[in-house]
Amino acid sequence: MAKKSVVTEAQEIQLAIELINLGARLQLLESETTLSRERLLKLYKELKGVSPPKGMLPFSTDWFITWLPNIHSSLFINIHRYLVEHAGVTGIEAVMKAYKLYLEQVEPDPSGEPVLSLTRAWTLVRFFESKMLSTACCSKCAGEFVVHKLDLHNHYVCGLCHMPSRAGKTKKAKEDAASAAAELLA
């Protein structure tokens, strides 16, 4: 039986704590640390006061291509790329630092959650590493946006330069606008 270094174990626990505080799911924790599932469950319950959410991780690239998630995913992946290329960080450290910088740049949605969760950001990086997704340059604003790797990208126009007609017109947005108008009249 191999001896585990106390320092290494402490570093793994610290990494798990940071990931949990950023909103990591259990599957992400298991993939990025060497701690046992039982240890991670105890740690998660101690930090959050509840059991970790159950269910499958995001597995489709399509979510990252839809209008609002594409904008947020593109912001995150460009931050991540910059850190990897210019700051010399890699792996989960690069994902965490890029995610923290992403959170500083965006406001949470009405539910209080950011559009892009840490788990989705981590999945996005994995999709880029497996060459399922890439970025294309918008022909109008020259920004780099997330696209399917095998799609055609000649004369690509991003979702900011050419917004879909229903962008931002969700039922929730309509209800929020109505309640804000009612408060102004009261």
From TrEMBL:
<comment type="function">
    <text>Functions in complex with FlhD as a master transcriptional regulator that regulates transcription of several flagellar and non-flagellar operons by binding to their promoter region. Activates expression of class 2 flagellar genes, including fliA, which is a flagellum-specific sigma factor that turns on the class 3 genes. Also regulates genes whose products function in a variety of physiological pathways.</text>
</comment>
<dbReference type="GO" id="GO:1902208">
    <property type="term" value="P:regulation of bacterial-type flagellum assembly"/>
</dbReference>
<keyword id="KW-0010">Activator</keyword>
<dbReference type="Pfam" id="PF05280">
    <property type="entry name" value="FlhC"/>
</dbReference>
<dbReference type="GO" id="GO:0044781">
    <property type="term" value="P:bacterial-type flagellum organization"/>
</dbReference>
<dbReference type="GO" id="GO:0005737">
    <property type="term" value="C:cytoplasm"/>
</dbReference>
<protein>
    <recommendedName>
        <fullName>Flagellar transcriptional regulator FlhC</fullName>
    </recommendedName>
</protein>
<keyword id="KW-0805">Transcription regulation</keyword>
<keyword id="KW-0479">Metal-binding</keyword>
<comment type="subunit">
    <text>Heterohexamer composed of two FlhC and four FlhD subunits. Each FlhC binds a FlhD dimer, forming a heterotrimer, and a hexamer assembles by dimerization of two heterotrimers.</text>
</comment>
<keyword id="KW-0804">Transcription</keyword>
<feature type="binding site">
    <location>
        <position position="141"/>
    </location>
    <ligand>
        <name>Zn(2+)</name>
    </ligand>
</feature>
<feature type="binding site">
    <location>
        <position position="138"/>
    </location>
    <ligand>
        <name>Zn(2+)</name>
    </ligand>
</feature>
<keyword id="KW-0238">DNA-binding</keyword>
<feature type="binding site">
    <location>
        <position position="161"/>
    </location>
    <ligand>
        <name>Zn(2+)</name>
    </ligand>
</feature>
<keyword id="KW-0963">Cytoplasm</keyword>
<feature type="binding site">
    <location>
        <position position="158"/>
    </location>
    <ligand>
        <name>Zn(2+)</name>
    </ligand>
</feature>
<dbReference type="GO" id="GO:0003677">
    <property type="term" value="F:DNA binding"/>
</dbReference>
<keyword id="KW-1005">Bacterial flagellum biogenesis</keyword>
<dbReference type="GO" id="GO:0008270">
    <property type="term" value="F:zinc ion binding"/>
</dbReference>
<dbReference type="InterPro" id="IPR007944">
    <property type="entry name" value="FlhC"/>
</dbReference>
<comment type="similarity">
    <text>Belongs to the FlhC family.</text>
</comment>
<dbReference type="GO" id="GO:0045893">
    <property type="term" value="P:positive regulation of DNA-templated transcription"/>
</dbReference>
<keyword id="KW-0862">Zinc</keyword>
